Amino acid sequence: xxxxxxxxxxxxxxxxxxxxxxxxTGPGYWGPRGERADAVAVLRRAVERGVTLxxxxxxxxxxxxxxxxxxxxxxxxxxxxxxxxxxxxRTGDRAWHVDGRxxxxxxxxxxSLRRLRTxxxxxxQLHRLDPGVPLAEQLxxxxxxxxxxxxxxxxxxxxTADQLERALSLTGIAAVQNRFHLLDRTSAAVLSLCExxxxxxxxxxxxxxxxxxxxxxxxxxxxAARHGATRxxxxxxxxxxxxxxxxxxxxxxxxxxxxxxLAAAEVRLSAEDMSGLETLTALHTPVAPAMPGTD
Length: 295
Description:
Largest sheet: 7 strands, parallel
Order of helices and strands: EEEHEHEEEHEHEHEHEHHHH
Strand content: 15-25%
Number of strands: 11
Distance between the termini: 26 Å
Strand order of the largest sheet: 3-4-5-8-9-10-11
Shape: globular
Structural class: alpha/beta
Helix content: 25-40%
């Protein structure tokens, strides 16, 4: 039987199937997508349906996704965990700039606090490691914010196993967010480290950013038909079965798609299902994302 919950940071129990906010913003994760009221309604529906982990980022919009989270959900109900990210600056719909200087990380975190209307961010994730700033300085800035009570737990986005081991030698890490889905398991070594250290792994692009509607559709079809499920539900169920630390946060602006995604938690895959799905990755070559990791 799969576990429905995970103790993020050892202190914050969350349902493993959460909700990501990138899809509430426009193309290139820039500006709005549709009506603001619709985005607010989807966020509220997610929580009403039992979601307890909302994952966002300061550069989705930029700033817009965090504002939508606050508008929809503040004052936050007990047990709701809000995760956000900093360390990437947007200057256009195709422009992403990594900035891990300690002073800028503090500015970004404090701006997120204001937009989210909270005194403490449950999980603050470094959206990218800045190669121009020593890792100890980047994590040191987050450690200082944690000591001040502005963040509760630290997370890292898009890192290697070696980088994670180095980070763990410097400070406490609660979560990792790397690309990992049915068609791309290149972060398997990172996942193994997360399992060994009890870290949450929030896989971005958990539905393969649309690739599951392509050639993989046929391969997934028999498993989906056997369970009376959609291909997307099988892909999410595979993650939930693959490891107890995987906490996917698929995003959508559609209430119907939200309900479909959340229903994946009820799918129970057999050993035969899992064995068949393991072969899918050999059929596909991962495509590099056009922007920093998202959910």
